[in-house]
C-alpha cells in the first residue's frame, strides 16, 4: 500500500538498513526549508495537500495528496490515517528558537509600520484577507498570536517616540534592548503569551499539547506543567518516544548535514516510491483500454494522485499519461543535492532582502548572530531555564541525529565494500574467461589441423 509522509515544522544509503520505512504520505510540521528545497522537487503540485497552516483543508479519510506541510502540533495525527502516514521534522536549539521567534515576530510586525496608525493597519488587513487566495502569516500558528501582539507594541512605542526622547548610544548598540523602538528580549521572554506559546514549545508541539492542539484538555495540561514543573517529565517522555518513531529527525544547526541526510534517507525512498507508482501507471495505461471498474480502490487512488488530485476527478477513467503532472521520479539523490545548493543560496538572499526591508522601519535595529552574542549571559541562562524541557528534547534529537548519521555512513561503507568486492571478483573472472576461451580456440584449431592432415594423407595413398 502507498504510504504518506508528514513534515512537522518545529518553531521543530542504503535505505535497506533503516528500521523506519517511508509510508504513503509525508507529514512535515514546523520547518519550511525541506518543502521548499527538497519535497517540491519530488512531488508535483497535485500530490501536495492543500495548504493547512491555519486549519485542515481536506478530508483526511480520502486524501488525494501525499505531502502535508503544517504548523499544527502532533495532535493533527489523530485526524490522519496513522498506518499510512510518515512524520519527519527538524528541531532547533532552544536558545536559537527563542531568538528566531522574537526576531520574526518583530520583522513581520514592522511591515505594518507603513500605516499611519494601528487602526489603519488592522483595517487594511481585514479588507485584504477576504480577497487573498493564499494563507496570511496572520492566519498561521503561532504567528497569528505573536505578530498582532508585537505589532501593537511597535505602534505604541512609535507613538511614544514622537515625544522626542533621543536614544542613548548604549541602546543603539544592543538590538535586543531597544526599549524605545520595540519590546526588549528580556521583557518578551517573561510575558504570559511567551510562557503559553514559546517556552518549551518544541516539546509541547511533539506531544501535541500547544494552544493550537486538537486535544481539548491541552490548555489544562500546559497549566499543570507550568504550575508543577515535575509533571513536565511525563510530557517530555511522550515527546521523546514520538521522535523515536519519526522517519527522520533533522537539526537546524546542522543544516547542511541534515539536508544531505534528508536527501539520502527520505529522498531516496520517495524517489523509489514514485518510480514504482509511475511504472504501475504506465503499465495500466498501456494495458487497459476500457473503464477501470475492476481496479481496487487504493489502485484507483494511486492513479488519481499521480494525475490531478482534483475533487471533481472521475474515478474509473482510463489514465491519460499526457495529462499527468510531470513527476521527478527519474531524479537522483545527487541531482537533488545539486538543486538544494542552488535553491538554498537563492532562498537565503531573498530572506535577507526581505528582512532588511522590514527592519528599515525600526532602524537602527539589526538582527544578526553577532548582535545575539551581545545579549547578557543572564538573559541566555533564563531562556535555558524557561525551556528546560526543550533542552532535554534537543539533546535527545541530537542523539537520534547522530544515530541516523552512523546508520547512513555504515550503509554507504557496506555498499562501497560490496562494490569493491564485486569489481575485484570481476577481474579474476574476466582473466579466467579469456584464458578458457583462448584454450578452447587452441583446441579447436588443433582438431581442425589434425583432420586436415588426415584428409591430405588419404589423398596421397
TrEMBL record:
Q: Which InterPro entries match?
A: Heparan_SO4-6-sulfoTrfase, P-loop_NTPase
Coiled-coil intervals in this record?
A: none
- Keyword set includes Transmembrane helix: yes
The residue ranges crossing the membrane are: 429-450
UniProt keywords, alphabetically: Glycoprotein, Membrane, Signal, Transferase, Transmembrane, Transmembrane helix
Q: Where found?
A: Membrane
Span list, region Disordered: 289-325
Q: How does it sit in the membrane?
A: Single-pass membrane protein
Q: Which residues form the signal peptide?
A: 1-21
- Which processes are annotated in GO (biological process)? heparan sulfate proteoglycan biosynthetic process
A GO CC term? Answer: membrane
Q: What is its main location?
A: membrane
Q: Which is an annotated GO molecular function term of this record?
A: heparan sulfate 6-sulfotransferase activity
- The protein depicted here goes by the name Sulfotransferase
Natural source organism: Amborella trichopoda
